[in-house]
TrEMBL record:
<keyword id="KW-0443">Lipid metabolism</keyword>
<feature type="transmembrane region" description="Helical">
    <location>
        <begin position="163"/>
        <end position="183"/>
    </location>
</feature>
<keyword id="KW-1208">Phospholipid metabolism</keyword>
<feature type="transmembrane region" description="Helical">
    <location>
        <begin position="20"/>
        <end position="38"/>
    </location>
</feature>
<keyword id="KW-0444">Lipid biosynthesis</keyword>
<dbReference type="InterPro" id="IPR000462">
    <property type="entry name" value="CDP-OH_P_trans"/>
</dbReference>
<feature type="transmembrane region" description="Helical">
    <location>
        <begin position="74"/>
        <end position="93"/>
    </location>
</feature>
<keyword id="KW-0472">Membrane</keyword>
<dbReference type="Pfam" id="PF01066">
    <property type="entry name" value="CDP-OH_P_transf"/>
</dbReference>
<dbReference type="InterPro" id="IPR048254">
    <property type="entry name" value="CDP_ALCOHOL_P_TRANSF_CS"/>
</dbReference>
<feature type="transmembrane region" description="Helical">
    <location>
        <begin position="131"/>
        <end position="151"/>
    </location>
</feature>
<keyword id="KW-0812">Transmembrane</keyword>
<keyword id="KW-1133">Transmembrane helix</keyword>
<keyword id="KW-0594">Phospholipid biosynthesis</keyword>
<dbReference type="InterPro" id="IPR004570">
    <property type="entry name" value="Phosphatidylglycerol_P_synth"/>
</dbReference>
<comment type="similarity">
    <text>Belongs to the CDP-alcohol phosphatidyltransferase class-I family.</text>
</comment>
<feature type="transmembrane region" description="Helical">
    <location>
        <begin position="44"/>
        <end position="62"/>
    </location>
</feature>
Length: 195
């Protein structure tokens, strides 16, 4: 059995429980997409809930058992972004949400991707995920099942729509707030590295 790394240390290990969980989450993205686009909402909701629970679980295991790895730091946010993107496109395609919501969230990720060359030029990889970014992702992931349930008739659908949009708007706000924090961090790195 592999030795656990000391608390807070990021290792180069590949075969860790959190990495396996993140890999399974990634493999479930196309399954979720097919279910969502073919309007099999109950199985799609189950996959989305499993993805959300395992997202929380892999982070908990990584911290508690000191299995934080560089691969995990890439896999986990990649899975989050893919679920957000596939869900948004599916919900917009089915007219549960407007297309502007997709554009606002995708624009944020495009902005962050544009920062990566500047970070690499100065010897940095992707910045650690900020708490605001995690909270925004959590709010968005929480909003999607609710927005999907908004299609139910009567009070359950109305409540799902209200709480779903509340979570979605908070998620977008936190998502963009985190993006501005990343922009500020990159600007500071560039300024401090200037000759």
């Amino acid at each position: 059995m592999e030795q656990a790394s000391p608390a807070g240390e990021v290792t180069e290990r590949v075969w860790t429980v959190p990495n396996v969980i993140s890999a399974v989450r990634l493999l479930l993205v196309p399954v979720f997409g097919v279910l969502l686009f073919t309007e099999r909402d109950v199985p799609a909701l189950v996959v989305l809930v499993v993805a959300g629970v395992t997202d929380w679980l892999d982070g908990l295991i990584a911290r508690h058992f000191h299995q934080t790895s560089r691969l995990g730091q890439l896999l986990d946010p990649a899975a989050d972004r893919l679920y957000i993107f596939v869900t948004l496109v599916g919900l917009a395609w089915r007219e549960f949400v407007p297309w502007w919501l997709v554009l606002v969230i995708v624009a944020r990720d495009v902005l962050l991707a544009c920062l990566l060359p500047a970070l690499r030029r100065h010897g940095y990889g992707p910045l650690p995920v900020h708490l605001a970014g995690k909270a925004g992702t959590f709010a968005l992931m929480y909003s999607f099942p609710l927005l999907l349930l908004a299609g139910l008739p009567g009070t359950p659908g109305d409540l799902a729509w209200t709480f779903g949009w509340a979570c979605a708007l908070w998620g977008v706000g936190l998502y963009w707030f985190a993006a501005l924090l990343y922009v500020e961090q990159v600007a500071r790195i560039v300024r401090e590295s200037a000759p």
